[in-house]
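Table S2 (continued). Query chain:
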Amino acid sequence: MATVRLAPDPSVESLVSRVNQQVCAGYGHVTLDVRPGWDVEPVRAVRQAYPALTLAVDCGNAYTDLGQLVALDSYGLEVIERPFATSDVHAHASLQDEVTASVAVEAASPAELDDYLTLRAARVLLLRPAAFSSLSEVRRAHDKAAAAGWDIQCTGGQGAGLARAAHRGGGQPAGLHAAVRRHAAAPPEPDRHPDRRRERGGHRGAADPVGARARHRRGAGAAPGQGVVSRVTPGREPGGDHSLI
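Corresponding output:
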């Protein structure tokens, strides 16, 4: 499901208006940035305006007690992201015991993640590849979280190259966020030599309606270039057999 994040707003009314714009644009999942003093009121207002909206909050590691966060959970949150300082694993565990929402945490190493797994202190890993020392460490953290049944969201750079590389190396567990799968898809390469194709007779011009209708019936749009196929097909070399089964 597509998601959008909204920072704190000058007023609750303005925030609800911004949420309305995103819902009208097709978003069914909204994450609100909250902080002490800007939490219960904005979440309540958004929930009252959109009872069926999938809603999450990002706390920015800004809280030190459970009270306000438990109150937020009463508004049907899906995820509470980064509620406490990363080092306070016990506070995360206490919160996860108290709320229905999944607590989401970041970890900078597999060993750090182990502390959360041992105490069952969360149910979502916010996987930020840039925070790890190597992609092999990212893969290890990913596999540990997946084995524990956690959901995994790849964050940082909105699908930038490093995040995509870690995601591809780590696989796709069932709970992986849909937005990550969308960002990981490689776009088709443009045809850089259309004239050469015409010379070989492999391309029909715009004046050929028969060829156009045939391409339309196939319904697949532009075919990806060989470079794309070789990059996304494991174990295939450029120029090899790229047939799809």
